[in-house]
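Whiteboard transcription, Tuesday session. T.W. wrote the structure tokens on the left side:
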């Protein structure tokens, strides 16, 4: 029997300080657990410096030199990563010593897992926060959510205020650039002009391939036809649908193009 096979039969290392059910669920995961028996808060240094993040004022009489790593009650922690600078502030949160000692978790605000006054949507992405439909979203404001959250809310169309609000996730609007899917007259006009330009270029290229220009002669320049938009009145839903009147396609004679 090889050593590797013996290690596999022995199973994963036991997570010291956790319950038996927790050991079974977390024993096969990639996260490594550190032993906590006999260690106090002052013993944990980098990468998890529990001593420096211990909130002395909020924890009262609890002494970090006595509280062990297996302490399961929630205590207060303070993050001083942003204590310097023009927008200096502190992050304070509650979690148990055993949670931080075994899982090596850090500040939830710095990792954008909790909302604070500096990482919310209104502060970090004001261009997206102005699309927030406050009337439809109720009491939830852009100051209460994160830009990477997957919760769905209602947003206003930034191009046409007459459009009804659309539903999308915050991560789709802030990260993927999701916008109102209803048609806008200027967008349809731009698409129609682009299609007409491509169509004319295709005809010109086909003409050049069929009858190349003679030496010393210049081929005829073909410009894109102008598109005249005719915007209809808004329908019952408040959307605008424009009817684009395109001129007839130019009939190019291949033998007349030099």
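and on the right, the sequence the group agreed on:
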């Amino acid at each position: 029997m090889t050593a590797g096979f013996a290690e596999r039969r022995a199973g994963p290392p036991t997570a010291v300080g956790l319950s038996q059910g927790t050991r079974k669920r977390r024993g096969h995961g990639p996260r490594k657990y550190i032993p906590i028996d006999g260690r106090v808060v002052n013993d944990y240094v980098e990468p998890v410096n529990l001593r420096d993040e211990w909130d002395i004022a909020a924890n009262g009489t609890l002494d970090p030199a006595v509280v062990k790593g297996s302490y399961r009650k929630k205590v207060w922690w303070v993050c001083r990563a942003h204590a310097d600078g023009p927008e200096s502030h502190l992050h304070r949160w509650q979690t148990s010593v055993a949670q931080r000692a075994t899982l090596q978790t850090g500040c939830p605000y710095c990792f954008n897992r909790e909302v604070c006054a500096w990482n919310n949507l209104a502060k970090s992405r004001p261009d997206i926060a102005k699309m927030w439909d406050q009337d439809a979203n109720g009491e939830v404001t852009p100051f209460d959510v994160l830009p990477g959250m997957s919760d769905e809310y209602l947003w206003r169309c930034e191009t046409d205020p007459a459009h009804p609000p659309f539903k999308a996730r915050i991560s789709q609007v802030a990260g993927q650039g999701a916008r109102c899917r209803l048609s806008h007259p200027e967008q349809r006009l731009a698409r129609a002009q682009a299609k007409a330009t491509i169509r004319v270029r295709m005809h010109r290229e086909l003409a050049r391939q069929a009858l190349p220009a003679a030496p010393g002669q210049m081929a005829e320049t073909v410009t894109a036809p102008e598109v005249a938009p005719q915007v209809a009145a808004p329908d019952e839903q408040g959307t605008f649908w424009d009817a684009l009147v395109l001129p007839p396609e130019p009939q190019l004679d291949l033998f007349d193009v030099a």
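Someone added at the bottom: Residues 121-174 form one domain.
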